[in-house]
C-alpha cells in the first residue's frame, strides 16, 4: 500500500488523516510540523513524527507527501518533496503566485512526479446540484451565476490574518469558489473586477466581491465574507427561462421556470406600497412552475476522491483530474482580482 | 390655485392626475398627447384636451407643465415650456444625457423658472426604513449597500424597448435607485462598473448590475432585472456590526447585530455537508440580537410631496429639494455605467 507523509499537521491535515484512516489505497505513515504541540497531536493520533522535514523526505517508504503548511512555503516544500522522489498533494491555494506555481510545474516535469492540489470542493453536493441543473438546461441560457460563502465571526485569528503567510479570504475560500466555476465552465475568463474589504484586519481581505466575466458574456459573481449576520443563498443562478436558488450546503433550494415566455404583455400597472409599476408587475402563477431541489444522494463528497484520482494517476490508471494547469488558471484569476483592487480597474484577461 | 398642463398623457401622467384630484394646491387643467387615443382618455378623465402642445403652452392659465412623454423629447419640451413662461416638472429620466440636461439648466436660468424632476422614490417607505436604520448607526460603519428591483415578465413592450426613445432598465429604474443612494450618501461617487444584459431586446438593457464606489470605499450594488423568477431582497446592507435585509416594498425585514465583536475566536471547526470549515462556523446565538423591521407608518409616500416642494419653491417658501444639479449627478453615473459596459472597464469618476 502507498504511504503518505504529511508536512504541516494543522487542522486541515488532521482532517485528511481522519478521512484516510479507513482508506484502502494509502496509509498515513508520519508527519512533520514546526510546532511541537502539533507533533504531540500527531503522536496521539498514532503517527510517526519525524525530527525534520528532511528526515520525512528521506524516508524511502514515503511515496506521497501532503503539503499542508501555511501557504508561503507550499512552493519550496512541493519542489523539495518532488526532488526527493515523492509525488505531492498540496493544500490550496497551491502557491502564493503564478510565478511560484510555474516553478512547481517545472519541478514536476523535471522529476517526473504527479502533483495535485486538494481542490476537493468540486464534489460538494451544493455545487454538483447547481451544475447539474444548469447543464440539464432547466434554466435556459444561463447569464449570471452567484456563488457566496458568508460567515459572521470574522476571520480566524492566526496566520489567515497575515499577508506574508497567504492569509485572506481570496486565498482561503476564493480559490475554491473560482475553481468550481472554472471547472464547470468550458470557456475562458475575459474580465475580472474585484472589491476587497478590510473590516477587522488591515493586511488581508476579510471580505471580497469578485465579478468574473466569461467569454460568452456569462457573469459569475463570487463573494466571500466573514462579517455577514444575514446570509445570502449559497447559489443564485439566472437563466433566460428560469432562476435557481440553493440556500446552503444542505442543498435546500428551488428552480422557478417560465412556462409561457412568449405570452403577450398585458398593459397593467400594479400599485405597490412604493407606487405604481408596470415592469415589476407579478406573473400569473399558471405561467411558472417550481421545481424543489434537495441533496443529490448519489454524489460522494469525500476527500478520498482526490486521493483516488491522485493514486490512479500515479498508477497510470487514469489521467489526473485536478491539475497544476487548472490551478494556474485559478491563480491567474486571483492575481487579476488583486490587480483590480490595486488599480480600481476591471482587468482584461484571457484565462 | 395654480394650474397644471400635461404633455404626454400615458400611464404615468394618468397616475399623476389621479393623485392630484384631491390636491389642494394645484389643479390639472388640460393635456396634450400625440396619440388621439390618449386624448380620449384625458377627455373621459374630465380634462381639457389641447389641439397641440403649442396651444397648451400658449394658455396663460397654465402655470406649470408636467413633461411626461417618452424620454427623447424631455429636453426640448422642458425648454419650450420654460420659454413659454411655465415652471416645469419633468418625468424621469430627466433627459437622455448630461449634455441635454445642461441645456435645460441653462433655460431654467435664462427664463428664471423652477425646474424639478419626479424623483418621487426618495419617500418610498422601504428606502426611508433602510436609510433611517443606517443613519441611526444600527449597523456600525456601513460598507456595502445592495439595492435591487426584480421582475419576471420581461420588459413591457413598446417604447421601453427602443434605445432612441430612452428605453432600457437603467433609464427606467436605475435612475430611481441611483438617485436614492446619491440622495442618501453625502460623498462623491469615485468608481463605476456596470454589466448590462440583453435577454429579450437587443437594443436596450433589460437587466443591469451596477457597482458604484463612493469616496469612503462604501460600495453600492444596484441591480435591476426583468427576468428573475426568484427575487433577492429589496435591500441588503452590510455594516461592521450588523446586517440589514428588507424583503420588499412592504418593508418586511430585519437587522441582525453583533453583541460581542471583541470576543475571542474559538478554535473550532464545523463539519458541514460540504466539508469542514473554521471560518464559516456559526455564531453562538447569545452573541447576536435581531431587530424586526416593518413599515414606517409615519412616512408619507405620495407624489404630492414632489408637487408640494415644487410649489413651495415657486412661491419662495422653501428651496427646491429635487434639483437639476442632483439629476445631473445621477445622469453622469448612468453615463459612466454605459461607458463601463462599452469599454468593459471600471470608470474612474468624481461625481
TrEMBL record, chains A, B:
Gene3D superfamilies on file: Dihydrodipicolinate Reductase, domain 2 (3.30.360.10), NAD(P)-binding Rossmann-like Domain (3.40.50.720)
Coiled-coil stretches noted in the UniProt entry, renumbered to this chain: none
Superkingdom of this protein's organism: Bacteria
InterPro entries: Gfo/Idh/MocA-like_OxRdtase_N, Gfo/Idh/MocA_oxidoreduct, GFO_IDH_MocA-like_dom, NAD(P)-bd_dom_sf
Domain Gfo/Idh/MocA-like oxidoreductase N-terminal: 3-118
Residues covered by the GFO/IDH/MocA-like oxidoreductase domain: 128-245
An example molecular function term from Gene Ontology annotations: nucleotide binding
Name of the protein in its database record: Gfo/Idh/MocA family oxidoreductase
Species name: Petrocella atlantisensis
